[in-house]
């Protein structure tokens, strides 16, 4: 067994994955923790969530007190350079490794999926984001702070829209939709409005609205107009993000991989994927769309090996662990 070398962290909104990687690319241990949400919990408390998963992984690797060579942490909500810099300092202060790099988690998705290590990635999980890396190392990215920075989409917003259409279809302010019955049934209530009232009164956790996204896409598959409208809008956003990033990197006319990931896109819902494919065919016909099956923590570990200048065989060993 190789000695521990690298700590790879993928911190998502809903969960954190950690891997301890040996110098030969072997995965010595993994662990999973809670979501990384510094905007809601504060930076120190958010890093505490990472720390719990890191401690578990190091313990499983038989190296609870080891100081590793490097931490590669790719985190949701690390959206601005200043945030990445602050989080890098916070991780170094924990003493896990001698060096650390913090980046947005979409970079890990790109590294996990792009065969050449560059291209564009669009993630749609709880939120939505996009990054691009050119063959020369140039980057394209968006602030991805939500509506205030022009963003639209993500599972949370899709769930809210599913409820919005369900209630309006029920009370007559909007067209009738199959979402009305589906949303009520999912929460075990008689009416869609009872879900909205339940969220308001604290009877339902607002985060549970994320559960409505699959219902929305299933409704679109039946041809429901309200659900189709939202699904088409999401496809527009996924294509617009990728096309703009490709344009900034001067890659619109170049064969390039566009990696899609996050829970909403990784589900490969046929109606949504067909709509996305049509738009890329029109806007970026040289792009090849790839949906990532490997966990984003693989991308974090690969980026860590890049930083350390690891030999090619280490990459092959690492990928074989996560892509069996």
Give an account of the 3D structure.
The chain has 324 residues and is an alpha/beta fold. The protein is built from 13 helices and 10 strands. The strands form 2 sheets. A 5-stranded mixed beta sheet has the order 3-2-1-4-5. Strand 1 and strand 2 form a beta hairpin.
The DSSP helix count reads: 13
Decide which structural class fits the backbone.
Answer: alpha/beta
Order of helices and strands: EEEHHEHEHEEEHHHHHEHHEHH
Low-confidence stretches: none
Largest sheet: 5 strands, mixed
Query: End-to-end distance, in Å?
Result: 19 Å
Strand line-up across the major sheet = 3-2-1-4-5
Shape: globular
Q: How large a portion of the residues is in β-strands, by DSSP E?
A: 15-25%
Radius of gyration: 21 Å
**Overall pLDDT, averaged?**
95
Total count of strands: 10
Helix fraction, binned, reads 40-55%
How is this structure best summarized?
The protein is 48% helix and 20% strand. The protein is of the alpha/beta class.
Write the layout of secondary structure elements.
Layout: E1 4-11, E2 15-22, E3 27-34, H1 38-41, H2 43-60, E4 68-75, H3 81-93, E5 97-104, H4 105-113, E6 119-124, E7 128-133, E8 139-141, H5 155-171, H6 179-187, H7 192-201, H8 212-221, H9 225-248, E9 256-261, H10 263-266, H11 270-283, E10 287-291, H12 296-308, H13 312-322
Parallel strand pairs: 1-4, 4-5, 6-9, 9-10
Antiparallel strand pairs: 1-2, 2-3, 6-7, 7-8
Helix pairs in contact: 4-12, 5-6, 5-7, 5-8, 6-7, 6-8, 8-9, 9-11, 12-13
């Amino acid at each position: 067994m190789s000695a521990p070398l690298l700590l790879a962290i993928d911190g998502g909104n809903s969960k954190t994955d950690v891997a301890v990687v040996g110098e030969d690319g072997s995965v010595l241990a993994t662990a999973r923790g809670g979501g990384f949400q510094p905007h809601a919990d504060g930076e120190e408390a958010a890093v505490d969530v990472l720390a719990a998963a890191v401690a578990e992984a190091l313990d499983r690797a038989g190296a609870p007190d080891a100081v590793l060579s490097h931490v590669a942490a790719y985190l949701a909500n690390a959206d601005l350079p200043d945030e990445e810099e602050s989080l890098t300092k916070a991780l170094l202060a924990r003493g896990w490794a001698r060096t650390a790099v913090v980046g947005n988690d979409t970079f890990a998705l790109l590294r996990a999926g792009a065969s050449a290590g560059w291209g564009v990635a669009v993630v749609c999980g709880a939120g939505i984001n996009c990054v691009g890396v050119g063959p020369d190392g140039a980057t394209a990215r968006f602030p991805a702070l939500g509506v205030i920075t022009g963003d639209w989409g993500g599972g949370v917003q899709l769930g809210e829209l599913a409820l919005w259409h369900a209630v309006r279809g029920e009370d007559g302010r909007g067209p009738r939709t199959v979402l009305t019955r589906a949303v009520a049934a999912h929460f075990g209530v008689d009416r869609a409005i009872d879900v909205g009232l339940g969220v308001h009164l604290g009877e339902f956790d607002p985060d549970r609205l994320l559960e409505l996204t699959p219902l929305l896409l299933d409704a679109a598959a039946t041809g429901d107009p309200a659900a189709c409208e939202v699904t088409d809008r999401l496809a527009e956003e996924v294509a617009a993000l990728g096309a703009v990033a490709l344009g900034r990197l001067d890659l619109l006319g170049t064969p390039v991989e566009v990696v899609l990931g996050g829970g909403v896109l990784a589900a490969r819902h046929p109606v949504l994927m067909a709509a996305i494919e049509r738009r890329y065919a029109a806007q970026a016909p040289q792009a090849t769309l790839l949906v990532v099956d490997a966990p984003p923590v693989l991308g974090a570990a690969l980026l860590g090996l890049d930083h350390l200048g690891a030999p090619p065989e280490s990459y092959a060993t690492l990928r074989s662990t996560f892509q069996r």
